[in-house]
Design brief:
The chain is an alpha/beta fold and 300 residues long. It contains 12 helices and 13 strands. Bound molecules: pseudouridine-5'-monophosphate and manganese (II) ion.
């Protein structure tokens, strides 16, 4: 049986109440090509440490769900072309088959919470797909049932953002805007959709998290931080490319777990790497914000 493995350094940090930030690994195995994947992870880790917190990369190592992958393990996963994308339903399958895997937002949130972490930084969460409202990422139901703060730049721009927000509302997930009134739209700072509450600082996020726990609510919190303005790809540039990528995915009958990696990779090609630069910038920003939130939680 594959049990949850927690790196001893992470266990010690948890026992001492030190601030920790979980990081996903689907972006390592499926979001970025090797070695850019290793480089962006190192930059996120550095951003977290600069704020006084510690990173814990979550992934599947020889089938074992692991919180706190070592640098060598991260590199091996990144270089392994056979590594699978592991959402929640894939966890037992990867375990029995002993596979290496990159964990999605859903799986990372679940495992990080099991280990005792309270904050997780990612790029953009999955959600309801455009033109396919039946295709709903497991990221959403996990947010509805896992008390962890997920810091992101909104939901991925390839998605149906209004429907994604409706799901979160129905299932009781508060959506907070980091120093912003509007829901961050991944490559761009806004798509004109409101958040439930603008938050000015990490202390406010920590207070909302503690209030949610005091009320014994099962949900997590989605904190959306807009992409730094300098790296923004405005919708006028990204939307035609998203439309093209979506049409190509449709024509090639790409479905299921392949949809998101296909669309994001195709956008990098179509945009001349603009969307990759945007993705890197927002990931580092989210890591920094998440670390601030973890520090605020640790002092409460
Ligand atoms: N980044 C990528 N490809 C991915 C993901 C991120 O370039 O596949 C992952 C994220 O971890 C996110 C997940 O949680 O995709 C959503 O995929 P799905 O819609 O299949 O649940
Ligand atoms: Mn899906």
């Amino acid at each position: 049986m594959k049990q949850l493995q927690v790196n001893p350094q992470i266990s010690t940090a948890l026992a001492e109440g030190r601030p920790l930030v979980a990081l996903e690994s689907a972006l390592i195995t499926h979001g970025f090509a090797y070695p850019a994947s290793v480089e962006i992870t190192a930059q996120m880790a550095a951003a977290i440490r600069a704020e006084g917190a510690e990173p814990a990369v979550v992934g599947i190592w020889h089938g074992a769900p692991t919180v706190g992958l070592s640098d060598a393990q991260i590199k091996a996963l990144a270089a392994d072309k056979t590594a699978v994308k592991v959402s929640v339903r894939d966890l037992p399958l990867a375990g029995v088959r002993g596979l290496h895997g990159g964990t999605t937002v859903a799986t990372t949130a679940l495992l990080a919470h099991r280990a005792g972490l309270r904050v997780f930084a990612t790029g953009g969460i999955g959600g309801v797909h455009r033109g396919h409202p039946e295709d709903i990422s497991a990221d959403l139901p996990v947010l509805a049932s896992t008390p962890i703060i997920v810091v992101c730049a909104g939901a991925k721009a390839i998605l149906d953002l209004p429907r994604t927000l409706e799901f979160l509302e129905t299932w009781g997930v508060p959506v907070l805007g980091w120093q912003a009134e509007e829901f961050a739209a991944f490559y761009s700072r806004s798509a004109g959709l409101p958040v439930d509450q603008k938050v000015a600082d990490a202390e406010t996020v920590a207070a909302i998290y503690h209030q949610q726990r005091a009320l014994q609510l099962p949900q997590g919190i989605l904190l959306t931080a807009p992409i730094p303005a300098a790296a923004e790809v405005p919708p006028a540039e990204s939307e035609p490319l998203i439309a093209q990528a979506l049409a190509e995915a449709e024509a090639q009958a790409i479905t299921g777990k392949r949809v998101t990696p296909y669309l994001l990779a195709r956008l990098v090609e179509l945009s001349g790497k603009h969307t990759q630069i945007a993705n890197e910038s927002l990931l580092i920003n989210n890591a920094r914000v998440a670390a601030q939130v973890a520090c605020a939680l640790a002092t409460k």
